[in-house]
Automatic annotation (TrEMBL):
Source domain of life: Bacteria
Domain Ketoreductase, chain residue ranges per copy: 12-184
Family stated for the protein in its record: Belongs to the short-chain dehydrogenases/reductases (SDR) family.
Signal peptide feature range: none
Name assigned to this protein: SDR family oxidoreductase
GO molecular function, one term: oxidoreductase activity
Organism from which the protein derives: Alteribacter keqinensis
Entry keyword Cytoplasm: no
UniProt-listed CDD domains: SDR_c (cd05233)
């Protein structure tokens, strides 16, 4: 279900990172249904081109450019932006959905996990955003949505590295939002709790293992702990992201929009 009309994104070029993942894929799918031209990116080549084909098959008019990139690599970030703009024109909307989970309790956290999580979820996301932002400044127009997390608003058990990376992203969102609005560029974040994707399933499995519980047992505990009684679906996050990208959200700036099933209310 979506609240948008078919022309909501005509003449818009959205660049969606993490498009081979659950949230990025749903964002790409709905964006093409709403008339956006999209650049999709991820590392998994087979999956990325399959998604491109699937979206083109269901939308004959869709303009989709797919580009493989590892966002932790400077060369990949540069070529992604150059090729995206070359193929579909300047990027008018950026969705930073690429991210990784993992890590452990602080006593067991490995240096590699800490560095890798911060590298993608924060440093590389900031550097890529900076490059896109500088292009948007030239046009004095654009919108950016960072996919942060409820973990970017409060700490939870066994989640220190991921949580730190998302707190950093939330802080970056707010600081950039204040600067960017002077250039008519809006920046916001979405902060979902558990979303029904591979990342959440992995996190629930890890948590279950620590407690000697099966995935199903741990999932039941997670769902029972949520006022809504269920995980968020990726489509629900995608619709929130897309709303923030439209002019209907034109005075929403620097927000961290929670999608928590009622679990976090402040
Ligand atoms: N699922 C949740 O419960 C949840 C909750 C709150 C926030 N989030 C955030 O939502 C975003 C999307 O998560 P998801 O649930 O859709 O996870 P997902 O299904 O695991 O997707 C993760 C995406 O990130 C991409 N990625 C990973 N490493 C990359 C790298 N080095 N360079 C480029 N792309 C890379 C993956 O691409 P490849 O597979 O092609 O490498 C994939 O497209 C993440 O930022 C996550 O932190 C998720």
């Amino acid at each position: 279900m979506t609240v948008f009309n078919k022309e909501s994104f005509n003449d818009k070029h959205l660049l969606i990172t993490g498009a081979t993942g659950g949230i990025g894929y749903e964002t790409a799918k709905i964006a093409t249904e709403l008339g956006a031209s999209i650049t999709i990116t991820g590392r998994n080549e087979k999956k990325l081109y399959k998604i491109k084909e699937e979206l083109e098959n269901s939308n004959q008019d869709a303009s989709i450019y797919a580009h493989i990139s590892d966002l932790t690599k400077k060369h990949d970030r540069e070529s992604l932006l150059k090729q995206a703009a070359g193929n579909l024109g300047p990027v008018t909307g950026l969705v930073n959905a690429a991210g990784i989970g993992g890590g452990d309790t602080v006593e067991r956290l490995s240096e590699d996990d800490l560095r890798n999580i911060l590298e993608l979820n924060f440093t590389s996301t900031v550097l890529f955003t900076q490059a896109v932002y500088n292009q948007m400044i030239e046009k004095q127009h654009g919108t950016i949505v960072n996919v942060s997390s409820l973990s970017g608003l409060r700490g939870t058990y066994g989640n220190s590295a991921y949580s730190a990376s998302k707190f950093a992203l939330t802080g970056f969102t707010q600081a950039l939002a204040v600067e960017a609005i002077e250039n008519n560029i809006r920046v916001n974040a979405v902060c979902p709790g558990f979303v029904n994707t591979q990342m959440a399933r992995d996190a629930i499995s890890r948590k279950g293992k620590r407690q000697n519980r099966s995935f199903e047992e741990q999932l039941k505990i997670v769902e029972e702990g949520l006022p809504s009684g269920r995980l968020t679906e990726p489509e629900e996050v995608a619709n929130t992201i897309l709303f923030l990208l439209t002019d209907a959200a034109s005075n929403i700036i620097g927000e961290s929009v929670k999608i928590s099933g009622g679990s976090v209310m402040r």
